[in-house]
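Work Package 3 (structural annotation) set out to generate three-dimensional models for the target panel prioritized at the project kickoff. During this period the team completed the workflow that converts sequence records into discrete structure tokens, so that structures can be stored uniformly alongside our sequence database. As a representative example, we reproduce one entry of 209 residues exactly as it appears in the project archive.
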Amino acid sequence: MQNEFTQNMVGAFNEGDARYIVRWFNASYPKILNKVKIFVGESSETLDLVMEVVTKFLERKGTYDTVMNMNNYVDRVIETVCLRYKKRVKTRRDNSYDLAEYMRNLEDEAAEKANTRAKYEYLQYLATENLPKQCLHVFHFYYHEELRHKEIARRLNISEKAVEHHKNTAFKKLRIKFENETGGNPSLFLFVIALPVFVIYLLIQKMLS
């Protein structure tokens, strides 16, 4: 199954293979979403919490031995993020009489959300602004549509060797720019570069709503 993440994929995930980071995300996102809802109930901030869990998981240094190790760590991150959120909500209620403090909390949260959205949007701008047309096409087909080299070559009427060259050029150029200009974590870069465009769009729209 396309969305299944199995033990034999853990090694590639640890090595930073973008395709398996996407496979992990596709397999884990529904489970994380469900667990967050169990912790905090239905909330307008549920998707923000889910993306915070995903980001913190990918920013963790080190490697995993098994899928169970990965799942256990995700569960700990979910618990930490959700308990922190509940504490913030309680603090807002307890201190609602203090308007100045309440407004500061809202401003801090808005700034954090804006920073998260900016990271996901900025990589797309980097690709559009910095990659040659053919390289940009290969970047989109490979990382976002997950097409094989042979299919990309057929669509663009180029050789598979040329596809490999354009893919590597796009990856190296964007990784350097993303990390240098945003201070982004390498694992977070791989996650962003590999997410399908429609997923990013939906998440951003939910955050903005």
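Residues 1-94 form one domain.
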